Amino acid sequence: MSIVVLDGSTVREFVEDKEAFNKTMDEKFVELDANKDGVLCRSELRKALESLRLMESEMGMEVSSTPQELNALYDSVFDGFDTDHNNNVDLNEFRSEMKNIMLAIADGLGAAPIQLLLEEGSLLKDAVEFESAKTH
């Protein structure tokens, strides 16, 4: 883990560099594609979301949700990725939705720099490393 300082522009510049962003998303996609069939099924995307624990916590506090509520939430997130509704997420759908998510994070961060503790391999850490590489 690393403590980094970033703001929305760090994330936005990373997303707007199509080559760097797509390279990173392609790598993440391959990591998530457990059966290596070139698409993500519900269980592969759900496993990734579960590992992030984004759905079960809010601001570091545990959120009590029933299994049915969590299933509905995971299905809703999957449907956001699966824009052609073929019950799989291909690489282009993954890139597109991750771009939307990262830009929403950039908007949420705003212009004021903040310190964050980030895990190695996280997308925000990738954005910070991208910015750092540009300045060296």
UniProtKB/TrEMBL annotation:
Q: Does the keyword Lipoprotein apply?
A: no
Top-level taxon of the source organism: Eukaryota
One GO molecular-function annotation for this sequence?
Answer: calcium ion binding
Q: Which UniProt keywords apply?
A: Calcium
Q: What residue stretches are annotated with the EF-hand domain?
A: 20-55, 69-104
PANTHER family given in the database record: CALCIUM-BINDING EF-HAND FAMILY PROTEIN, CALCIUM-BINDING EF-HAND FAMILY PROTEIN-RELATED
Identify this protein by name: EF-hand domain-containing protein
What is the phylogenetic placement of the source species in the record? Eukaryota, Viridiplantae, Streptophyta, Embryophyta, Tracheophyta
